[in-house]
UniProtKB/TrEMBL annotation:
This is Exopolysaccharide biosynthesis polyprenyl glycosylphosphotransferase. The chain crosses the membrane at residues 30-48, 54-70, 90-107, 113-131, 290-310. Belongs to the bacterial sugar transferase family. It is found in: Membrane. Residues 284-472 form the Bacterial sugar transferase domain. Gene3D superfamilies: NAD(P)-binding Rossmann-like Domain. It is a multi-pass membrane protein. Keywords: Membrane, Transferase, Transmembrane, Transmembrane helix.
Length: 478
């Protein structure tokens, strides 16, 4: 790839980066303002229809917009980030009756106004959240495409760049990486093997950005990139109207665990420790067992039919029982519908040369000759996992969590990987919805550790929603 770069000086004072391209978030912010205004009008009309209060109908829309502005729900750093955006809307809804209470006590001693504004908080938030969610999914996908898929330039060491590119290529909103500026050019051959052009070093950043129309500069940590160098790169990006993103040293950390904490003018990133206490996970424990028990009621008859078909297809029991390791290293008996012929465990040594996961302790063979005809269908559709709902009811497993490991796997775990055992294994999880057995061992471990560190109820919900499509695709299910 040949690149002609120019060396024209940059006139910072005369450049207006904001006019170079109209950002998607400016249009998104305008639409949100209009949508919030319409939602507030709809909520005001509901209050007027219920209580006959035109004063609330007139006051609520501008007050709601002012509250959303005060809670910075239109800031660029939260646009398109659903969880944080929704939290600010909810905080605004809580602030609405609080503002009405202050007005009641200090200015207008009208109990009806306080009542009506308090009652307005529920419809305005109840209507606002789904409206924002719809707009975020549709408009962000349409308008942010230019930003998320704009030409991106990665700057940093070869090893870190290869890891980042691997993660980006697995995502649905990957940056379109145009090239790389290396801090260690002696490893340029490794980057080229990954299909990425090496465009130079850190000193070439200015020329490369201007020559290729780069939209985003992504800077990875490296010993060669000191504070002054990174600052100059941010100035270069700002002068040319492009985004400058800094990759944190710690990977696989959710945004909810990060916060900027200034210290004497120095912005320090605070990494909040994951809360894995019993009290924090009690709602998950109760919800897991309740949902599993509820699901077993309609699934009881289909499970009986599957058990009968397994028995008719081959000799042996309908259920397969195997010792697995749960939370804190406690062993339990995991249940599955039998998908192999009896005595298959004794044949494992003969199939070692066919192991698809030779880079780790997992043993998976595509088109395993030990699998029965019905078993192949059950594995492809994940129906063989249904009896694990009983493990969830008993408290051995969760609906969402890391993959339940075998005892012999755990014996070979280094201390870092044993962190997977701080939570219960799951019927589904990040590993299961990201490719299952097609993933290399290192990637499977990374996903499990990432789940443990970033666990939340919202993450569990997103994994459950992704499980259906993963089952339909059947990727890695063999």
């Amino acid at each position: 790839m040949t690149i002609e770069v120019t060396h024209e000086p940059i006139e910072v004072e005369r450049r207006r980066p904001e006019t170079r391209r109209r950002p998607w978030d400016r249009r998104y912010r305008s639409v949100l303002l209009v949508a919030d205004g319409l939602v507030a009008v709809a909520a005001a009309l509901l209050i007027h229809a219920a209580y006959g209060r035109w004063a609330v109908a007139l006051v609520l829309p501008p007050v709601w917009i002012a509250i959303m502005l005060a809670h910075r729900s239109y800031d660029r750093d939260v646009l398109g980030l659903g969880s944080e955006e929704y939290r600010r809307v909810v905080r605004g809804a809580v602030a609405l009756p609080a503002l009405a209470a202050v007005t009641y006590w200090l200015f207008v001693p009208d109990s009806a106004l306080f009542h009506d504004m308090t009652m307005a908080a529920l419809p305005v938030a109840g209507l606002g959240l789904p409206v924002r969610r719809t707009l975020r999914r549709r408009l962000h996908r349409r308008w942010a495409r230019g930003r998320d898929h704009s030409p991106a330039l990665l700057v940093g060491p070869a090893h870190g760049i290869l890891e980042l590119v691997a993660v980006l290529r697995r995502g649905t909103q990957e940056l379109r990486v145009t090239g790389v500026c290396l801090t260690d050019p002696e490893h340029a051959a490794e980057i080229r093997k990954a299909g990425l052009p090496v465009l130079g070093g850190v000193a070439d950043l200015d020329d490369v950005v201007r020559a290729l129309g780069i939209g985003t500069v992504v800077v990875l940590p490296a010993p060669e990139l000191d504070t002054a160098t990174v600052r100059r790169m941010s100035w270069t990006a700002a002068a040319q109207g492009v985004d400058c993103l800094l990759v944190p040293t710690l990977a696989d950390i959710s945004a909810a665990r990060l916060a900027v904490r200034p210290a004497n003018g120095v912005p320090l990133v605070h990494v909040r420790a994951p809360d894995l206490s019993r009290s924090a996970r009690l709602p998950k424990e109760l919800l897991d067992r309740l949902l599993a028990a509820v699901l077993l009621v309609p699934l009881a008859l289909p499970m009986l039919v599957i058990a009968a078909v397994v028995r008719l297809d081959s000799t042996g029991p309908a259920l397969f029982r195997q010792q697995r390791v749960g939370r804190y290293g406690d062993q339990f008996t995991m249940l599955k519908f039998r998908s192999m012929r009896p005595g298959s465990e004794a044949l494992r040594a003969d199939l070692d040369h066919l192991n698809h996961n030779g880079d780790g302790p997992l043993f998976k063979v595509k088109q395993d000759p030990r699998v029965t005809r019905v078993g192949a269908f059950l594995r492809r559709t994940s129906l063989d996992e249904l009896p694990q709902l009983l493990n969830v009811v008993r408290g051995h497993m969760s609906l969402v969590g890391p993959r339940p490991p075998l005892p012999e796997e755990v014996e070979g775990y280094p201390p870092d990987i044993k962190r997977r055992l701080l939570v219960k294994p799951g019927l589904t999880g990040l590993w299961q919805v990201s490719g299952r057995s097609d993933l290399p061992w290192e990637e499977a471990v990374r996903l499990d550790l990432g789940y443990v560190d970033n666990w939340s109820m919202s993450l569990d919900l997103s994994i459950l929603l992704r499980t259906g499509s993963a089952v339909v695709r059947g990727t890695g299910a063999y």
